[in-house]
Amino acid sequence: MQIRKKSHRSNAMILLLMLLFSITGKAQVTLNANGPGDTYELINSVFAPGYDVIEAPDCSHQAFGRHIDEVFDDHLNKYVFRFHIHVSPDNDRCINFDRQRNEIKAYDKSPASLKAIEGETVLYEWKFKVDSFFQSSGSFTHLHQLKAVGGSEESMPLITFTTRKGTPDQLELRYARNTTQTTLEKVDLTPFKGTWVSVKEVVTYGESGRYSVTIQRVSDGKELLNYRNTNLRMWKTDASFIRPKWGIYRSLNDASRLRDEMLYFSDFSITEGDTSLALNTEDQNNPIQVFPNPAQHSIGFKPELDAHLTVEIYDQLGRKLLSEVSQSTINISHLPRGLCIVRLKENNQCKWISQFIKI
């Protein structure tokens, strides 16, 4: 009998350790080229197994075949992805004819680790290379976007990397708090041409979020762009999640300026960071604590919450488990075991976020 009790205690301790490890663990998704053939299948197997994440102009240019392939790159000494775009007859999926698109993306069929939810911190890393004679549209030539799915503002990307014709051409970091874009930073595109660069983009998603991006030249590590903001709205109203996109999406309003292009990508990596690094807008002089932690039957808060706040609890996949007006204790006995994310909302805006373990 004593042995059985010890076994139960051991099992509970193992479960607790596993749950504690899940807090500090990181979910990472990587996509790397592996050689010619089955390129679309490779991309889909990572970004949305069983579905299609390719937005290529194949329908309007069937004679060319697939507009994304894999080639060996001597500088990186590995296979990389090559995105093709042709001034004619490529368009935007045979839907829009004033622009053209060749992109890969995450979307609602993608794994949860590719869909950022409010409160998460996500690290996006990749490499890309534009041609030495790359030409930009005077309207837009997008290379990367972070875009919402759901809500009234989903049509306008949260973050956009775009190149723009100028003297000289520029690489612009564009941002939309709501539905109007502004330029956060812009740099001369010349140092980017004909060379590989690596991108590190870190986002804490939320109403009072954080954003940083660094772009370095691979050959010598020279920094070409660096932007950081620790208080930036990194969310969209009523969004379900934010997803990344990469490729080339450009306007044809300035087609005479453009040429057929090949854009290269490599080493995609998306890492969801520790929840402890996520959005935390609590007043540091009056911190809120969830107790007990771990918890089995109920949780409370120190200090006690104002009655007008809403308590929402989510699992690690972003699924809402509970929503109710704050009170002295919240019954969690019916929730599944695992790491739970707590959000306190006021007037439908997230004011504070933390986590606890349900055992």
Characterise this structure.
The structure is a single chain. The strands form 4 sheets. Strands 1, 3, 4, 6, 11, 12, 13 and 15 form an 8-stranded antiparallel beta sheet that branches. It contains 2 helices and 22 strands. It is elongated and about 65 Å long. With 359 residues, the chain is mainly beta. β11 and β12 form a beta hairpin. 33% of the residues are buried. It is 9% helix and 45% strand.
Notable traits:
359 residues; mainly beta; eight-stranded antiparallel β-sheet; 2 helices; 22 strands; elongated; disordered N terminus
Radius of gyration: 23 Å
Order of helices and strands: HEHEEEEEEEEEEEEEEEEEEEEE
Shape: elongated
Are there runs of 5+ residues with pLDDT below 50, and where?
Answer: 1-10, 12-25, 274-286
Q: What structural class do you assign from the helix and strand content?
A: mainly beta
| Average residue pLDDT | 87
Strand content: over 45%
Number of helices: 2
Q: Sheet bearing the most strands, described?
A: 8 strands, antiparallel
Tell me the distance between the termini: 23 Å
Helix fraction bin:
under 10%
How many individual β-strands? 22
Structure summarized in a few sentences:
The protein is mostly beta strands.
List the helices and strands and how they pair.
Blueprint: H1 2-24, E1 27-31, H2 39-47, E2 54-55, E3 68-73, E4 78-85, E5 99-105, E6 121-129, E7 141-149, E8 159-164, E9 170-176, E10 181-188, E11 197-204, E12 206-217, E13 223-234, E14 241-251, E15 261-272, E16 289-291, E17 298-302, E18 310-314, E19 320-325, E20 330-331, E21 338-346, E22 349-358
Antiparallel strand pairs: 1-15, 2-5, 3-4, 4-15, 5-14, 6-11, 6-15, 7-8, 7-14, 8-9, 9-10, 11-12, 12-13, 16-17, 17-20, 18-19, 18-21, 21-22
